[in-house]
Amino acid sequence: MLIKAIIIDDERPARAELKKLLQAYPEIEILDEAQNSKEAIEKIHEHNPDLIFLDIQMPGQNGFELLSELVSAPKVIFTTAFDEYALKAFEVNALDYLLKPVDSKRLAEAIQKLSAQFQSQVQQKENKTVLTENEQFFVKDGDKCWFVKLSDVRLFESAGNYAKVYFDNYKPLILKSLNALEERLDEHHFFRVNRKHIVNLKWISKIEPYFNGGLLLELKNGEKIEVSRRQSAKFKEMMSL
User: What is the third-level CATH fold of 136-239?
Assistant: First the structure.
């Protein structure tokens, strides 16, 4: 199992030292390097890595601000000279937090944890089937209950660990995160347009250019949803626009 990674650090010697340590792990393929957040975001979207080794203190945006820019973040191992960010690092679900200079034993522990998580994800994906648009699912909201066909759902909206399901004139909550839904939904019918929304492609009636290189979608019922600038490139490619 090959794990594709990018090293993000403003210090060239730190990047070189980490690359040297990672030579002991042939399962980790270093795709690229970046020295600041702007460059890192571009390279993450270009390569779509499984993992980033991320410094926190960098010129411009710091590591946490970088992560907030991403629609869907890869796994993160922080590498930093400062220990005061450890609690915040785990609040954003970082896989590990390594202090510089990186100790080879601590790196080994992080890679072991990483490998275990990837193996678990592979097994979970093998056990999960993609939901087709013709399948139904059960929704309960207070005293109301529905069997909802996926083709009738025009939109999913993030609400923390829940998601709002938009169908007919209803928008009840289900106990599924948007990330979990994205894994199960057929990408030929549903598209993650931004951090908060997944849209049913068959419900789109109009596509217009929007601010900062983004797009604005109008659904058949008149609702308008913005496609983020970064997702717009994917959307255009998929729709051959």
Answer: OB fold (Dihydrolipoamide Acetyltransferase, E2P) (2.40.50)
